[in-house]
TrEMBL record:
It comes from Anopheles funestus (African malaria mosquito). Pfam families: Iml2-TPR_39. The lineage of its organism: Eukaryota, Metazoa, Ecdysozoa, Arthropoda, Hexapoda. This is Uncharacterized protein. Gene3D superfamilies: Tetratricopeptide repeat domain (1.25.40.10). Residues 1-21 are annotated as: Disordered. InterPro entries: IML2/TPR_39, TPR-like_helical_dom_sf. It comes from the Eukaryota. Residues 1-13 have a biased composition (Low complexity).
């Protein structure tokens, strides 16, 4: 109650101050002067204080209260404007509805205008001079420094929104240019941080947390990209260094700056999601545990940290605990029901690993009916999960439902920035196979679990891997019967594809069950079938990488590098190629003991 009263009082005071400034034609000039007026400094401190209150409200699930605090001054205060923009942006990302995307775009445009109002105005002479001599960053006021940082943040969100606002190649180029400008602004903010005398230590603290968060995230994410992409990005001004990025984010997470919690979120997202999707490595689960203990103490009912706690238990292979935390996150708030979809996605896969196809299908249905992120993927996933049920377990209506779902998969295929989504293309190809094989697919949900890189969780507990292994073995047993069946000649056409899939999944299971010799035999059989495979050419490079991971487990570094280079250079044009290249890249970095880029972003 005291906090709310303070916030209201602060907002009222701030409104009066800003009204005075709006009536004063000299306000902007005063703020542009080398020595900012006391009123400008007070305004920045007040804005930062209210933004901190809004952050705490937001992570305590009080989304409406947080937005109500930010929105009234969104047209005049840059921190209020950034806060309001973030809320509208998140709503757009969660709903994917056009009106929310348009609202977010307008809010970010307004935010950039507000930030530009407070940014340092350089004369033509000063702009030219920056090219030839060192910049005197002491000419920036604290307010102008924060305006640069807020501009970079708003520009990054605007760039990300550009990719979904327009589905053309032009939007991809525009978004890329915005991100490049944003990266340059963060580097400039880093120079401001390190090369000026700050008027307020509190102001510097909040500014530093933003610089750490921005540069740390850029460095970390760029370092994950395959070498050929990094070389292209270097050419247009990007650089990435994992160690530098991690250190920035850790430093930011340990500060008391306003963006501390965002540094924590980035570290959790990287260690619990990115690592598991884009690499063969695991995240630092112990570190995540430590972060979550602190954050859940501060935000005990916070939907975000309850979700990450569920993800942590999921990655540990503690499926029952994961279910508990995901459900707790799901039920912790109803203001943004779209956030439930994240929990439903996770609950779907937790139940798949538990081989509870009925329960998994329930969450798949929720996603199909309510989420707009990717109806193609959701629809195929639901159909695939239902296909895992035995014929005798399916009602006749459910058999018809599977066929209907498979027919609907291609209808919802979308393009982002002019490009089709690889996983949607994969799903559409699989539906074609389903009908070509007279309404049949081999273990489609297990295949999805594999391409989503969830098999590594099987290795946490033997019984998890053993359950999946038994299903694959059962299908291999019946494989010969189906191939020899004259009633369905399509099985003969795709015989190699189907057998290769089953052998790849079997080999991957055996690797997780610590049976490398048996796994190797299965994977080598897949590779030997390359010329016989009709469509699923992705199986061979994936099998080669799986084989390389066995070599890594055995300490056979040279053989692992050869296998990874083979998969990288000698195979192309297959489904989910980029996804595999990310994993190859991270494995090669680890084996070669160096990154493709060792220059940290943010340096002069």
């Amino acid at each position: 109650m005291a906090t709310a009263t303070a916030a209201t009082s602060s907002t009222s005071s701030n409104q009066q101050q800003l009204q005075t400034y709006d009536d004063d034609d000299e306000f902007q000039d005063a703020c542009d002067a080398e020595t900012a007026s006391a009123s400008c400094a007070l305004d920045l401190e007040t804005a930062l204080a209210e933004a901190k209150i809004a952050v705490d409200l937001f992570f305590n699930n009080k989304f409406n209260e947080a937005e109500a605090l930010m929105k009234p001054l969104a047209t005049s205060s840059m921190y209020h404007s950034v806060g309001h923009s973030v809320f509208t942006y998140l709503e757009a990302m969660l709903t994917f509805e056009q009106q929310h995307i348009a609202a977010a775009s307008e809010a970010l445009k307004q935010c950039l205008n507000v930030c530009n109002r407070y940014r340092k105005k350089n004369t033509l002479t000063e702009t030219i001079g920056k090219t030839f001599k060192k910049v005197n960053y002491d000419q920036y006021t604290d307010l102008e420094a924060h305006a640069e940082l807020c501009s970079a943040e708003a520009l990054l969100l605007k760039a990300m929104l550009t990719f979904i606002e327009d589905e053309t190649l032009t939007s991809l180029i525009k978004g890329g240019m915005k991100i490049r400008n944003c990266f340059a602004m963060y580097k400039e903010c880093n120079n401001i941080l390190n090369h000026r005398q700050w008027e307020s230590e509190s102001s510097k603290l909040h500014f530093e947390s933003g610089v750490r968060m921005g540069l740390g995230t850029f460095n970390l994410m760029i370092s994950l990209l395959p070498a050929r992409i990094i070389k292209l990005l270097e050419f247009i001004g990007f650089s990435g260094n994992k160690q530098s990025g991690m250190q920035d984010l850790i430093t930011g997470s340990q500060s008391e700056g306003i963006r501390q919690v965002l540094c924590v979120m980035t570290l959790l997202g990287y260690n619990l999601i990115v690592c598991y999707v884009l690499s063969h490595k695991e995240g630092d689960l112990r570190f995540c545990d430590e972060l979550l203990v602190k954050q859940l103490k501060q935000y005990p009912d916070g939907v975000w940290f309850l979700f990450f706690k569920g993800r942590l238990e999921f990655m540990k292979g503690n499926l029952d605990d994961a279910l508990k935390w995901y459900k707790k996150s799901w039920k912790s708030q109803n203001v943004w029901p779209q956030f439930h979809h994240l929990c439903f996605w996770e609950l779907l896969w937790v139940n798949c690993l538990r081989l509870d196809w009925r329960e998994s299908s329930l969450f798949a249905t929720y996603l199909v009916e309510n989420s707009k992120w990717s109806r193609t993927i959701y629809t195929y996933q639901k159909a695939s999960i239902m296909c895992m049920l035995k014929t005798e377990e399916l009602h006749s209506s459910e058999v018809r439902t599977i066929a209907t779902l498979m027919k609907e998969v291609p209808k919802y295929k979308q393009r982002i920035a002019g490009k089709s989504l690889p996983m949607e293309k994969f799903a559409c190809k699989k539906t074609e196979r389903f009908f070509a094989q007279q309404s049949f697919l081999y273990v489609p949900a297990l295949e999805l679990m594999y391409v989503w890189n969830l098999f590594k969780i099987l290795g946490k507990h033997f019984h998890l891997a053993d359950g999946v292994y038994r299903i694959v073995e059962e299908n291999l047993t019946h494989y010969g019967e189906r191939v020899n069946s004259k009633s369905n000649p399509a099985f003969s056409v795709y015989a190699a594809d189907n057998k290769a899939l089953l052998l790849l999944l079997k080999g991957a299971c055996l690797r997780q069950m610590n049976s490398p010799l048996q796994a190797t035999r299965c994977l080598e059989d897949v590779i030997a079938m390359y010329k016989d495979i009709k469509e699923d050419h992705y199986l061979v490079p994936y099998a080669i990488v799986e084989l390389a991971l066995i070599y890594i487990d055995q300490g056979n570094k040279d053989q692992a590098i050869l296998a990874l280079e083979d998969a990288k250079k000698n195979y192309s044009g297959y489904s989910l190629e980029s996804r595999l290249h990310f994993r190859i890249h991270t494995a090669l970095i680890e084996l070669k003991g160096k990154s493709y880029e060792n220059i940290p972003a943010g340096g002069e």
